[in-house]
Amino acid sequence: MKIFKSLASASAIALVATGAFAQDVTLRVWDTFADQTAGMDAFVAAFEEANPGIKIARDVQSIDEMRPVIQTALNAGTGPDIFYYDTGPAFAGALAESGLLLPIDDMYDNGMLDAVYPWTRERVSFGGATYGVGNEVEFLGVYYNRTIFADLGLEVPTTHEEFVAVAQALQDAGNVPIAFGDADGWPAFHIFSLYANNIVGKEGLEAMIAGERSWDDPKVVASIEPFFVEMNAAGYLAPSVNAVNYDDSINLFTTGLSGMMVTGTWLIQSMTDSGLDVGWFFLPAPEGMDTLPPAGLGSGYFVSAATEHPEEAKKFLEFMFDPANASLWVEGMSVVPPYAVDTSGMEIAPLTSFAMDALATVPMGYNIDVLTPDAFNTAMKDGFQAVLGGDRSSAEQAAALAASVE
Amino acid sequence: MAQQSRRGSQRQKAGFWFVLPAFLFYVAFFAYPFLSTVYLSMTEWNGIGDPKFTGLTNYVRLVQDGAMWSALTNNVIWVVLGTAAPIFVGLIISVMLWTGVKGAGVFRTIYFLPMVLSPVVIGVIWNWIYNPLFGLLNTGLRNVGLGKWAIGWLGETETALYAVLLTAIWTYMGFCIVVLYAGLQKVDTELVDAARIDGANPWQRFKNVIVPQIRPVLTMVIVYTVIGGFNVFDVVWVMTGGGPNNASEVIATYTYEVAFQNSENGYGATLSVVMSFVALGAAYLAMKFRRAGEA
């Protein structure tokens, strides 16, 4: 009997010593990487391997579903420890205002996120505190079909006037100059951002977004007029522009029916996979003005204020945004992380490489819709469709934008 | 006497226990949510945190909300055309099938097929048909020399609502045919024959003999369609999202935008409450007309 007791005691001591009794911490993580789920699973596996004792229970949500679901879950106290969500004031900002997010200023102050671009921290800071880490850095510009440009002897435009001339040349050649349709409403947001950054300028936009200056401004009117009125009237956009959705716009471009497409860097992988020889240029400002491409964040990681494992959650974020793991984002998921990446040695498309370099070297402006309230975005959605449909003038749309935030 | 009374009381108790589960289900899944929605309709709430009671402010806003009236007008157009067209066409086709067309069962199945498809699938398919770049409709129009009519049906403010409505009518017509056809099975054919012998022409037989006999079924279809017309959401949302520039917006899509895209859950609840009462009122009127017709 004594022998059994001794054996049992020895076994227990051995188990404790080897940590077999230690309780694993499981972090519940919700993200929206449905299309890159294998890449994110690889990320999670790498984290678990580097952090024994912390397990990740990952749940993928669609972007459309995440908003109502996360609000309900956090309110009910049943939400995840960490989640991936829109960074705008109407999204993460509203959750922060309601005390549902954990401030993580200490991570930035303690050097855990040293590599992250400072401007991305600003986008996830609300009311003087930082609540997350912005990710999927994106900027807007113009993809163009190099083959068509070469065949027609066209050069990459450097001013808006040259851009219009290129569009005219494409149209003369029987091409749809710009693959742009606005059935979804939101593609117009990006066009407006591009022109407003070039024409209103960074400081002016900062003041308008902060509510210190009205959107009912001649420069805003001048930002709406060139594309939504003049180029639309000239037939440079997709025919029946309000009936063509974003996917059809992509099809127009990738089937070679259109010479240019104005959109964001999130399409780099699709463009690369299309088999076309695709180039990129920043939408040029009118003569005498500076070109300022809008940049923004796709989403960001946030920690629930109700998490029982804040330290483990921070470890996860630190791992995700450690530049040593950049290849997991860039090569594994075609996602641009929020820090400078050394792409040498990485197997990535030239366009991706260009985007990484541009982020580190080109001054960037604001992608407006992720910084403005819902009412403003609704006024953009409905209003730009009205302008494209000829039912509203640029001046009326500028006034409507101003009224939406008054 | 005392024994009878005790038995009655026992029956009442047994009845109570039989009714209780259904009653609790009703309270939990209808009465409580409905009353909560009525309460939320009198609050300002972004879906997070605690609602702030604002009394009738949302109702005052609703009366002054031009977008709401525009959406309600579209609902009324939807109810009128979306009720009249499928029932009118459905009635004609169901009578034709009832009179003994060869292969009636096959036709019934074909007509009913759209009803078994998900509204989302139907919306996507009809989006392809209407697509201005490669859609079947515009391609067909161009091929027969009507290229001028090839427009962006879902992108023009003048046509978007009607294009979506046509899709809904196509979908719903099969339901009307099947239900009305079932109602026609109870029509007394001897009365139809008697009317024929009395010299009634086909239209007179249809109007004065057949329709009165299927009036209960007809009323049910009308009430169902009217309520559906005020609640319509899915097909509009999938095909146009209420656009362009709100041209095809209906109350349900507007409510969704307000509540879940603009995070104005309080005002969204106000719209829901009003929409419920409008639908109930319309259904009540339809039933009242039916009773008046029967009297």
**Helices and strands of chain B, in N-to-C order?**
HEEHHHHHHHHHHHH
State the CATH architecture of chain B. Orthogonal Bundle
Number of helices of chain B: 13
Span of the ends, CA to CA of chain A: 84 Å
Structure, explained:
The complex is a heterodimer of chains A (406) and B (295). With 406 residues, chain A is an alpha/beta fold. Helix content of chain A is 47%, strand content 15%. In chain A, strands 1, 2, 3, 6, 7, 8, 9, 10 and 11 form a 9-stranded mixed β-sheet that branches. In chain A, strand 1 (25-31), helix 2 and strand 2 (54-60) form a beta-alpha-beta unit. In chain A, helix 2 runs antiparallel to helix 15 (326-333) and helix 11 (218-233) crosses helix 18. Chain B is mostly helical and 295 residues long. In chain B, a hairpin with a 7-residue loop joins strand 1 and strand 2. The two termini of chain B are 43 Å apart. Chain B has a two-stranded antiparallel ribbon with strand order 1-2. Chain B has 13 helices and 2 strands; from the N terminus they run αββαααααααααααα. Chain B has one domain: MetI-like (MetI-like fold). In chain B, helix 3 (66-98) runs parallel beside helix 7, helix 3 packs antiparallel against helix 10 (215-231) and helix 10 packs antiparallel against helix 13 (265-294). At the A-B interface, helix 3, helix 4, helix 12 and helix 17 of A face helix 12 of B.
